[in-house]
Amino acid sequence: MVSLRRRPLFTPIPSADNLLRMRRIAITNLKGGVGKTTTAVNLAAGLARRLEPQGERVLLVDLDPQVEASASSWLAAPQGSPMFLEALLERGDLYDLVSPSPVPGLDLIPGHPSLARAEIMLAGEPGSEAAFQRCIQSLPDRWRVAIFDTPPAQGWLMHSALAAASDVLVVIESGAMALGSLVGLDRVIRLVRERLNPQLELFGVLQSRADTRTRLYREVAELLAEQFGPQAMQTVIRSDVRLLEAPGHRQDIFTYAPSSRAAQDFEQLAAEVAQRLDLGR
Q1: What is the tens place of the pLDDT at every residue in 153-199?
Q2: In terms of DSSP bridges, do strands 23-28 and 145-149 run parallel, antiparallel, or are they unpaired?
Q3: Dihedral sign from CA coordinates of 116, 117, 118, 124
Q4: What confidence score (pLDDT) does residue 179 get?
Q5: What is the per-residue pLDDT across 189-239, written as a single tens digit (0 to 9) for each?
Q6: What is the mean pLDDT of the chain?
Q7: Rounded distance, CA 34 to CA 37, Å?
Q8: Which single residue of 32, 74, 266, 281 could bond 42 by disulfide (Cβ 3.0 to 4.6 Å)?
């Protein structure tokens, strides 16, 4: 068995210039099938389209061990490496895993099934959630924004992503049960903020797969505005079959269907996120 005691994982993490400059957005929900990976891939692509002409880049980090249905598969990334797990164990460098994506200005750290072992190998170590934050901190000052695509379940990988993030974007599927998953997630975010990452902020709550013609959509939008105020994203990702087709073609929505309403929605989302993060500077 691999020893985890090469260096105490709960040692304090010093501040780093790249962490102060790079905004790190964890895309999350406690359940799957809500459009989380769809949002991670296409928001990252949309931000890259905006930032690349300014000489800035975006990094998409795939933390989902189920890589066949993850951002890595979507963007036709090279086969991921078990070195991701080794980097978490402080036996490798996360930077060595960075791959260019087909999207100009967007780089990717692919996931790997071995990440599932992290839940077993590291979950019992006090303060081990700081391991991923340390890996992110070790990256060079190359990216303006990092997007973390998290697994669709609460566990060590999700907690680690939140510990390393500056912001959380919660994606919910517009529907009758839309707000149910937010109850437990709100508690998780509060605990991570209290125990691991005092700088963590709820960036926003995004409605995905919405049928804006229905009364149910309007009711959910009203509830989000009432409960979250300005943290309820103005942008809504509408239902669009093109979003279902794009992964099969290994393309982001801007490449696959640039004139679709989904592309319009994600362009608007990227603009809203860029404005909130003040990325024009």
Answers
A1: 778 899 999 999 999 999 988 765 666 667 778 888 888 999 889 99
A2: parallel
A3: positive
A4: 66
A5: 888 999 889 999 999 999 998 888 888 888 888 888 888 889 999 999 999
A6: 84
A7: 9
A8: 266
At residue 42, what is the residue type? N
pLDDT at 75: 81
Least confident of 17-21, 121-125, 269-273: 17-21
SS3 per-residue string spanning the chain = CCCCCCCCCCCCCCCCHHHHHCEEEEEECCCCCCCHHHHHHHHHHHHHHHHHHHCCCEEEEECCCCHHHCHHHHCCCCCCCCHHHHHHCCCCCHHHHCEECCCCCEEEECCCCCHHHHHHHCCCCCCCCHHHHHHHHCCCCCCCEEEEECCCCCCHHHHHHHHHCCEEEEEEECCCCCCHHHHHHHHHHHHHHHHCCCCCEEEEEEEEEECCCCHHHHHHHHHHHHHHHHHEEEEEEECCHHHHHHHHHCCCHHHHCCCCHHHHHHHHHHHHHHHHHCCCC
Both tokens of 238, joined, read: 């509408």
Structural domains in the chain plus CATH codes: 17-276 (3.40.50.300)
Whole-structure pTM value: 0.88
Confidence band of 5 (pLDDT split at 50, 70, 90): very low
- Nearest-5° Cα angle at 274, 111 to 19: 55
Q: What order do you get walking across the sheet with 145-149 strand by strand?
A: 99-100, 106-109, 58-62, 145-149, 23-28, 167-173, 201-210, 232-238
